[in-house]
Amino acid sequence: MEFSIKERFPLKAYNTFGVTAFAAEFIEINSEEALVQFFEKRKDAVQQPFLVLGGGSNILFTRDFEGLIIRIGIPGISHQLSENEVWVTAGAGVIWNDLVWYCVNRNFAGIENMALIPGTVGAAPVQNIGAYGTELKDVFGSCRVFDTKSGKISTFSKEDCQFSYRESLFKREARGRYIITQVTLRLSLNPTINTSYGAIQAELTKRNILHPTIKDVAEVVSAIRTEKLPDPSTIGNSGSFFKNPIVTVQHLQQLQFTFQDMNFVYYPVDTNHVKLAAGWLIEQCGWKGKRIGDAGTWKNQALVLVNHQNASGSDIYNLSEQIIHDVKERFNVALEREVNII
Ligand code: EPU
């Protein structure tokens, strides 16, 4: 198998922030076999820094990447039916939203609330994507991974992946070690519609839909996202830039005591912890819709940082530093970035 490695490769079209950066080397891999062979041939690739790229929707390049970028384009979706369930398998390069509609159109339920999340299937487990009341871990069956250390393919179960809120093994201790090649989801043939997220129910009511199908949910979620979030093809962004911070109940009570006139937005996590809405905290610090040069926060959702046109990765990063600083100073809450910084 021949591999065509491109040198000094421009990444502008490969990151949804649309910032300018170059990769010293770049290769697109479209099958598991090619991935295994490539690493066999290029043993040195494991020695030098390398980075796996999917849709480029959760990454901010603040500099050129002085190593090899491997873009995973493995295609294909298939499914296997059993009595009440269906197992849907997709290649890591499949666009996540295409997988959602493959399932919705066949009435396979479980990922309709995650319609229109940007990015690829292979990136989904890395940060345990989630939206509108569902997380990938709720429907995750298994994934196939290539271990760059051993050069072997293996299968990881849900437990192996150690999912938590926007986190997994792939983002933590095993960072950079495994390359996800395929994901299998366990979906239901007897849909339970999840409209627990207020905005979904409100939009269904507005549309006079009393008995929603999963297609209705996917459409409503897509409409809410389109209204609230900027479209990366016209304005560079990578969705939520920060995670919603998890704090102790005691911390929340202190905040509520200090800021008695404020209505803190939070969601319960467990008996001792709550998740604060980072977008709300950022808005309270006066950052909503603000910009410094071409780097800004989105006018409808302060948690989303945007590139108005010509911002560099560093401009966006510097803005995020200022936001972190202000939220820390005002509320003593440490915001953590969800986006990977290069
Ligand atoms: N809010 C504000 N001001 C803002 C933004 C939000 O007051 O500028 C308030 C909203 O009014 C709402 C609350 O904060 O009461 C939560 O806002 P929203 O429903 O937009 O959700 P979020 O918590 O900001 C999370 C995910 C999103 C996901 C939505 C819907 C994270 C980091 N983000 O955002 O995921 O779509 O919930 O489930 O968990 C992503 O990860 O890229 C992403 C877009």
Kindly describe this structure.
The chain has 342 residues and is of the alpha+beta class. It is built from 9 helices and 20 strands. It has helices spanning 32-41, 43-47, 96-105, 158-161, 198-206, 214-228, 249-258, 278-284, 313-331; strands at residues 6-10, 22-29, 50-53, 59-60, 65-72, 77-81, 85-91, 130-131, 134-135, 140-147, 152-157, 178-188, 236-240, 246-248, 266-270, 273-276, 291-292, 295-298, 301-307, 340-341. The protein has a 5-stranded antiparallel beta sheet, sandwiched between helices. Strands 1-2-5-3 form a 4-stranded mixed beta sheet. A 4-stranded antiparallel beta sheet has the order 13-19-18-17. The protein is globular, with a radius of gyration of 21 Å. The model has no long low-confidence stretch (mean pLDDT 95). The structure holds uridine-diphosphate-2(N-acetylglucosaminyl) butyric acid. Residues 131-132, 239-240, 243-244, 265, 277, 279-280, 283, 288, 301-303, 338 line the site of uridine-diphosphate-2(N-acetylglucosaminyl) butyric acid.
